[in-house]
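Notes to self after the call with IL:
- keep both proteins in one doc
- input above output, always
- annotate only the second one for now

Protein 1:
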Amino acid sequence: MNNEVFYNISKIIERDSKSTTYKYALLRGVIDIIQDNSPYITFVENRIQIPTGLLVEKWLLYYYPILQSQTSIPQINGEINLAFSSQFSKLILDYEDRGGFSAFYNDLKNKGIPKDLQSEFLELTKKLRDTITKMPMKYIGRSISNDFYSIFNYESQRLKRYSNIDIETLIKGYGTFSIPLEYYEAFKILGSFINGQDSILFKWAQFSVNASGNNLSVDKVLNEVLKSPITERNIAESKKLYKDILKKEGKVFCVWTGRSISNYDIDHLIPFSVWKNNDLWNLLPSDSRINNQKRDKIPTPEIIERQKNLILDYWGIIFESQSKRFQKEIQVALLGNHSFSSWKNIGIYQLQNSCNYLIENRGFEGWKI
């Protein structure tokens, strides 16, 4: 990796086409996937390959609150609607009486899209896929090269019939895209800065403010753009579910010390402030005092190795009680393309890998007792 790559990224952000927010959404999505250390990232020669469905998921999460907002937040110059506005607005309207943004995300990630909404959901996600691959992927890099698809390559795939439509459908059925290895390395190292308030998100907000004729504030736009589908209520419900399961087990042991405890916290193994992940595998019982010491620190691979038997015990308890949810969550977050049959070994390995990545590459503080 050389300085030219960083210079090119700067040029892409500053000089490539700015008629819509598509460019920002594509770069933000790729960086978020890389920063999440997705287990679906694979290396092919001098490029890295990622399921396009993961980008579709990101765009669903980025644009849902924007299009749902009561305040008009322009995303395009010279036209009224984005390419997928009509399909997206219909889905948003259908979810108004079903729980809104959070309910939609829960269906996408866990329950599956309701049967009566599957047709319009597929229409929307196909439109998102086509928009992503035929617009920003095609044109990004034109400030550097006159060639189309100069950075992104896309390989399409025929969508199979699925009885259940959810996040795995997007991952398995919408093809793959790739970027050069040197861009992956740059995004891995500097992604959190590029995706920070002073760059892509901030410029996204600035675009909307300018497009509104300065009738909006950057703060107002950022508040909508950064809205998360996971609420405090969702976190509380997951923790209550976990505690209800533990009550049936009798004794509870602190996952970090192994000591029997009567009063305990349900700890996010990888802190929620670092990774907005409320999966059951990421929730573990911890002594309140120990949890207070850990706070937003990242468990080191060493402490995970030391406590892996207890971690696996808790994962096993959750699997027995919530098998479908557990399997789906751990498959997407940790196992990736690996078979679920090897979930114990691969799950622990990828957990260690993700924590090590957060400590060594992203600079978060490591934690061990």
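Protein 2 (the one to annotate):
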Amino acid sequence: MKKKYKRALLIITILFLFTLGISTGYGFWKSIKDGTSNEKPTTLDCFKVYYSNDNDMISLTNIKPILNEDGRETTPFTITITNTCKDEKEIQLRLNILDDNSVDLVGLTMQVSGNLESDIITYDTLRNAKATSQLYKISKSLGNLKVKSNETIRTNIRLWFDEKKINTLDPASTFRAQFEIVDMGTAAKPNFAESILLNNEVLDGSTLNYGEIGINPGLYKINVDNNDYYFYRGAVNNNYVLFADKVWRIISINTDQSVKLILNDSAGISQYSSYKNAIDYTGTKYVYNNNLVDNQNNKYLLEWYKTTIEDKGLDKKVEEVDYCNDTYNTIENYHRYFAAYNRLITGKNPSVICEKTEEDFGGIIKQKVGLITADEVAMAGGLDNNNNTSYYLYQPYDYFTMTPAEYYGYNAYVFYVNGAGNLLRTIPTDRMHIRPVISINSSQTVNGLGTIENPYVLEDN
């Protein structure tokens, strides 16, 4: 009898423990799903942050794409944030793709609710952020929030892959990502050049055919003297800058990280030079009576710069850079051809490297304002004797470049852009519109996205 009693008691005990184990297991699963417990806090200056899935990491395998309506029903990642400081703080919530991620991000889709609200959005449409770690392959912002002292906010992020954009994913591949909370008050802000790169998909410019009319618009990268050089090409609409109460367009990011701008409209009308009957008058500066003098155009530019930028206390934001007035030339049958003529008319091969010259006029001119070069026009989309009204440098009027073209028959010629977008040649004594060019120094930071509605605006630093 005692043996039967003990056996029964043992069976009851085992059944009890088994039932308890099932209940505990189910309760643990449910708590993760609901985001009501098992949250492990992490600390950030002034913040306590809780993640419903125990940490800020996402690691998914054997992923099956689903429809967006099903994605809305998936279990969210819940992030709870409390500001423990005395002052209001601004934070940015980011989703960073880790370097060891092996999943194609096409179709990565999210829905954000709570204190941050976004209906169905794709990862590729999110704004890029400056990565805070080399472990992050891509860093994107889900949005910014202001959190009052002792306030607690909560955000739910549902994440899936849209089967309408990607049918299958390799079962062996792994989606690896990490949430990040960034205190915007202490975060290192990207400089102007970095902001441009964050807001653009950079295209390979090494194989561009500059003789083609058809242009894929965008920001391109090439190698210049073992440094990265970026330039806009085509009908881009995100290279607007508001500076000195004027609208500008970004030409390029120079190799020193300064950002080159051209005035979007005309600063007035001037001659390039007061004379045309000598080769020297193609020079931005030339020697006259043993003195180095400015041509008519450069005098105009320097005065414009003084009244428009320097006198307004904005001179410190502008970098003194090398402007290329390329006066290297060769002679053939009494006809002098400047280097740019061969590059742009004959070869369709523009360059931002300024050739050395032995002449006592032109060459590299170091100052804070200049004109665009004919090479930069060609890189943006201008072609010799071909209409192009759909690239960002187009204006319905004639304007000078600072690039000499040729000299023959006692007449000098320089490149200009006409009212149809052609890159043509004219004598220096013609009167044309002037579009000043400046370079913003690499220490400047900006707000805005570069669109006409929300242009880049330099901050007060």
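Annotation: The helical segments are 2-34, 68-71, 192-198, 296-308, 339-346, 374-380. DSSP finds six helices and 32 strands in the chain.
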